[in-house]
Design brief:
The protein is of the alpha+beta class and 215 residues long. It has four helices and five strands, in the order H-H-E-E-H-E-E-E-H.
Amino acid sequence: MILLSTTMGLAAAVFLLTAGYLFGARQGYAAREQLRRENLAQAEDLARLRERLAQQIGEGEEGLRAAIERLLTPLVQRERLSLELSDLKAQAGRHGELTALLDQIAEKGNFAAVLLSDQGGWPIAASRQTRDLERLGAIASLLVVVADRIKRDGGTRPLSLMIHDEASQVTLCRIFRAGDQGLSLTAVSTGTQLTPTALDPALGKVEGVLTAPGR
């Protein structure tokens, strides 16, 4: 009888221990599963944050790159124009060379018109695509008068003057001398951003043709 009671007591104890272990194991599994789900959710949130941050950085870099390109484009255009006009081809003294030279200036500078005129605005030569020579000559003459007036009023005589009109055209008039003759080289641009010295690289070739022997 005592043996039976002892055996039943031991069995009950084992049962209680096993039940406690299983209950604890279930509780531990549930806790681990909850922790796993929380870690997975945090990992997903972190991945989304990283993706969003990378996208924002990418958009910021793209915006910065676009801003830099907008700033550099005019500088690149001006440098390209300067290099192009420094490499004009002209044979001094040849008949009609001035027109060919002005055609090159118009082509390389993407100008709608290029006019070489005297100080009175009378055309000496023009690029073949130039239209309304009289009007362009009158503008050049007026700008020369303005430059002379500035000098007479005690200022330093301008070498170039620019006009930006309502049609977004820019007219650049470069005043210079070839020998003892006062001249102006005028260009009309509809796209290229010009500086007051944009036509300077071409002056040497123009002067060379004008002052060549036999002209």
